[in-house]
Design brief:
Structural class: mainly alpha
Helix content: 55-70%
Radius of gyration: 35 Å
Number of strands: 17
Distance between the termini: 48 Å
Number of helices: 43
Length: about 1000
């Protein structure tokens, strides 16, 4: 196999050349310690002095050494000026390789940089580990560089990376195929080959029928899905031992499985025997896991729908019987009045002086005889009334549940039969009932296990004649299974989303063996000692309480008040803006710009199309023409789809688009292409005017509701947002420079907080230092995790009075000092310490991307009884949250910055809505992955427009010779936003018959990149 083209030719040149430094970076990079500065004065030539400083600065900045012939002339001049010597680039050619070699060794010693040659085995192991996960070669390169930098190891050149990554990929596949050849039996080969035989009746192979998964909740569609699952399950059971022997990583299995899903029957048959079997086995394994999850989703949705229907009917019946109940209650009330009247009469007789005792007894007995029954029932009236109402409610519920059972069985009975449950559970009685149900294939009798039911449920299983109510039992079983799955008590095995918590974390064995190494790779070493961490936080929290309260007492916090009930009232003044023209006015000259022109221009300055690699690793396929890629990006990102896109376009057919999207479009490719655009925005000096601090980057995230036009288990009903339809929430991230750097699609009923960590960890191009969300985006656990990620979490808190503050000190200590901001209770330090090792294991798992954070936190938070690890992390988060709230109260500038950043993400949501205009803004795909592909393309178009806007404005500034006019334009831009799209023509007919790139590029990149405005 030829060496992989991990980077483009331009990227390779940039990789092996010294970094292009800004003036501010040169100030830091080329600054030498005094002892080194004194030492280089002893060098025999000024050229050697300059050469040493350049080697030093570049190495300090990148962890690498570069050839002297590649040193930038600007840097040579700058260093010579700093050393107060004169050295030109021509003279610098005399800097000898031998001298440079000696200087490198001296720099290694001083910076404690480990030579690459001495740790080559570590380098190979790091790459092998990532190849085993089937990470993209470019991602491997980036991650290994980050790892080498963290361990102070010298970074090699590009060629070395390319060779080792290529060799490792080839070796990995050879070893997998060799192991497969050794284990695969002739019977298994025949079984796999039968998947490719075409059925003459349907003209489809069995494999083709298994590629698509229905999300429908209709009984017929569910039964069809279960039948397909059974086919996969039998194949999986026949080959599971073989897959366990191969021990492939989940991502590798997913890659091979996706290839099978994308490929035609002819393409699959063209694979060599063992390679074809490897792909087919992976497809079976991944489909089994995926279908387990999907069927579990169907089970939960159907059970929840049934419960909702029952509760609604129960409410209706209750309403219908209100009059009857009111009459009953009235009768009871009247009876009580009569009882009291009777007692009053008896009391009157007893106290009377007109009658003898015998006469009194006689009269009282006569009164009692008149209403003896009522008197006897008097003490029981209230109890009977309550019991009657409660029994009616319960009886109605179980009657309705039994009546709904057949309908529910039609949907989920077959699912329960065949789902594979993990045998490790805290509810063995429920597991026993499931196993009984599966053994009997759903044909159960009165001997069915009942230990999992509560007393009320057990008592009602027999009808008045003593007959076992089978339908009711099944409905109760389904409800308990759904509840246990949702709450984490029950898990599936194997699966992707319904595993036990431990299955998502690094194994205990690996953690114990490699703990220090994993913590180092994850950048968590400084959190190793719990006592040090908690002591530092304790001091910081105490100091912040003191500072915040002292400022309130001194009257320095003018935006805080306390009402009559001593509740806190906090106001945040708006940041006053200078009244200027709109940024949109600056685009009046260009009128309506075609979106095709935008995509073409942006590609010519970023080469983002090089990122749309073919699904195969070798990537040697014929690349489609650029116009086809533009059409595919617009078709997906504008929510038109291949069919409609081809109908409103010239020069592009639906088949071309479908094939292109199938093989070249995936989330990794789009994400990489997006990063190209984000990197150029970062380079532009104009975008820096929106960044408040050069050493800190403020990011934010928020959700936007979007409709789904097809059956999708990732969507749910919400009349408020979707009317009678279903929809999802598109959760998006943006930074101060208007770069939309991540997005995901979640059910609109899900809490957004679980996905905040995903967005910040997923992207390597954007390093957030402060992140803001709205109310739905934060929880105490997120506060804790963010702190361990070295990100300052700063959400907007709308109702501060309900936010609970915690401390290591008692409330009385703060009250004694006259403080108004007081803690509610102590931090449970012992709980955190007990589970600190587990917290670090969880953090290493998500930071090293072994498992998505959202998957872990959804599982953690779903436990019916909160998991000890979740409770400990929550308690730790309370410390960080308390620190933040105290700062939030104290610092008006912080609150204003949060509001400003959240306004930015809200504008971004409006922008994304304008781009996603097709099909009535309802996404046409069922699966979460397909939905995210659409949203990622939409985000790509958004970033492309923002980059184009900034290129246009940068050029306008660069061409403006009048300094006063330039300042005026810059003021307009800084008080507005480049996130505007009114001048972009997103609609209309698209003509791809012309070569768009043939037009002259209107941007002068040399002038744009040379522009300095901040």
């Amino acid at each position: 196999m030829a060496k992989l083209e991990i980077l483009t030719s331009d990227e390779r040149k940039a990789f092996d050349a010294p970094p292009i430094l800004t003036p501010a970076e040169r100030e830091t990079v080329f600054q030498l310690p005094n002892e080194i500065l004194i030492w280089i004065q002893t060098f025999d030539s000024t050229i050697n002095q300059v050469g040493f400083v350049l080697l030093w600065g570049y190495c300090k900045h990148t962890g690498r050494f570069f050839l002297p012939k590649t040193f930038h002339a600007e840097d040579i001049t700058d260093v010579a000026r700093r050393l107060n010597v004169e050295v030109t680039q021509t003279e610098f050619k005399k800097y000898k390789e031998r001298t440079a070699h000696n200087h490198k060794q001296a720099i290694r010693n001083y910076l404690e940089l480990i030579p690459f040659k001495t740790v080559r085995s570590f380098f190979l192991e790091a790459i092998s580990e990532r190849v085993a996960k089937h990470q993209q070669p470019k991602q491997i390169l980036i991650e290994v560089i980050t790892l080498l930098r963290a361990k102070h190891i010298e970074v090699p050149n590009y060629n070395h990376f390319a060779l080792v990554i290529t060799e490792t990929i080839v070796r990995f596949e050879k070893e997998a195929l060799a192991a497969l050849t050794e284990q695969l039996t002739p019977a298994q080969c025949k079984s796999l080959d039968r998947l490719l035989i075409i059925d003459p009746e349907t003209n489809l192979s069995k494999l083709a029928k298994l590629k698509s998964i229905s999300h429908s909740r209709k009984p017929k569609a569910i039964r069809q899905s279960v039948m397909q699952f059974r086919t996969i399950q039998i194949l999986y059971d026949n080959h599971v031992s073989l897959m366990q022997t191969l021990n492939l990583h989940g991502e590798t299995i997913k890659h091979y499985a996706n290839w099978i899903r994308k490929a035609s029957l002819q393409q699959i048959r063209q694979l060599s025997g063992q390679k074809r079997y490897l792909h087919l086995l992976s497809f079976i394994s991944y489909q089994y896991r995926l279908r387990q999850d999907i069927l579990a989703d169907v089970l939960l949705v159907c059970v929840q729908s049934t419960e909702n229907t029952i509760l609604k009917e129960q409410k209706n019946r209750s309403f219908q019987h209100t009059n009857t109940q009111n009459q009953t209650i009235q009768l009871l009330a009247e009876a009580r009045i009569s009882y009291k009247s009777l007692l009053n009469k008896i009391q009157t007789i007893a106290k009377s002086t007109m009658f003898s005792d015998a006469e009194k007894v006689k009269q009282i007995n006569e009164l009692l005889d008149q209403d003896q029954a009522q008197c006897l029932q008097e003490p029981k009236i209230d109890t009977l009334q309550k019991q009657t109402l409660e029994n009616m409610r319960i009886q109605n519920y179980y009657i309705l549940l039994e009546a709904s059972s057949i309908k529910l069985q039609n949907r989920v009975a077959e699912i329960i039969k065949y789902l594979s449950f993990d045998t490790t559970t805290t509810q063995p009685d429920l597991l026993a009932a499931i196993q009984y149900y599966q053994t009997k294939l759903g044909v159960i009798g009165k001997d069915a296990p009942q230990a999992f039911l509560n007393t009320a449920e057990t008592n009602i299983l027999l009808d008045e004649s003593g007959k076992f109510r089978i339908s009711l039992y099944k409905a109760l079983l389904f409800l308990h299974v759904a509840d246990a799955l949702k709450s984490g008590v029950l898990s599936l095995s194997p699966a992707c989303r319904y595993l036990t918590l431990d299955a998502y974390l690094y194994s205990i064995i690996r953690w114990k063996q490699q703990k220090e190494n994993l913590l180092e790779q994850a950048g968590l070493t400084r959190f190793y000692s719990f006592s040090e961490v908690i002591n530092q936080l304790g001091k910081a929290l105490h100091a912040q309480y003191h500072k915040t309260n002292q400022r309130i007492k001194a009257g320095k916090n003018t935006y805080i008040k306390f009402d009559r009930k001593n509740k806190l009232v906090l106001t945040t003044p708006k940041v006053e803006k200078i009244n200027t023209q709109s940024v949109s006015d600056l685009f009046s000259d260009c009128k309506q710009v075609s979106i095709l022109q935008v995509l073409s221009d942006v590609n010519r300055v970023t080469d983002y199309l090089s990122c749309f690699r073919h699904h195969t690793v070798k990537d040697k396929k014929i690349v489609p023409r650029k116009e086809a890629f533009y059409a595919a990006i617009l078709g997906q990102g504008c929510n038109l789809g291949p069919s409609k896109m081809s109908n409103v376009s010239k020069g592009i057919s639906e088949n071309v688009l479908t094939n292109l999207i199938n093989w070249h479009f995936n989330l990794d490719n789009i994400h990489t292409a997006n990063n190209k655009i984000l990197a150029l925005i970062q380079q532009l000096s104009l975008s820096a005017i929106y960044q408040k601090s050069p050493i800190a980057l403020h990011t934010s995230s928020d959700g936007r509701k979007t409709g789904i036009a097809v059956d999708s288990l990732n969507a749910n009903y919400s009349f408020k947002y979707h009317g009678n339809g279903i929809g999802v929430s598109v959760y998006s991230f943006i930074d101060e420079r208007n770069r939309a750097f991540y997005s995901t699609v979640i059910s609109s009923s899900e809490r957004e907080a679980a996905y905040v960590i995903d967005g910040l960890l997923h992207n390597l191009a954007i390093k957030s230092t402060i992140h803001s969300t709205d109310t739905h985006g934060y929880s105490e656990t997120v506060f804790g995790v963010m702190h361990l990620m070295d990100v300052f979490f700063a959400p907007r808190i709308k109702k501060l009075k309900k936010s609970t503050l915690y401390s290591f000190e008692s409330k009385k200590i703060y009250e004694s000092k006259g403080y108004k901001i007081l803690p509610e209770r102590y931090i449970n330090v012992q709980l955190i310490e007990t589970h600190w090792d587990d917290i670090l294991r969880l953090m290493a798992t998500i930071k090293l991307k072994e498992t998505a954070a959202s998957l872990i936190f959804k599982r953690l938070s779903s436990y019916s009884k909160q998991h000890p690890l979740y409770c400990a992390l929550k308690e730790f988060g309370r410390i960080i949250k308390s620190l933040f709230i105290l700062r939030y109260i104290d610092e008006v500038e912080l609150r204003q910055a949060i509001e400003k950043q959240l306004n930015r993400v809200e504008l971004s949501n409006k922008f994304s809505k304008a781009i996603l205009f097709g099909n009535n803004q309802e996404i046409q795909y069922s699966s979460k992955e397909e939905q995210e592909l659409v949203v990622s393309c939409q985000r790509f178009i958004q970033n492309a427009i923002i980059l184009w806007n900034e290129l246009y404005l940068s050029q306008r500034l660069a061409m403006q010779e009048d300094l006063e006019q330039r300042k005026k334009i810059l003021l307009i831009i800084s008080n507005g936003s480049t996130m505007i799209w009114q001048h972009i023509n997103l609609h209309g007919e698209y003509d791809f018959t012309q070569d768009i790139a043939a037009n002259d590029l209107q941007f002068d990149m040399d002038k744009i990149l040379a522009l300095k405005v901040a």
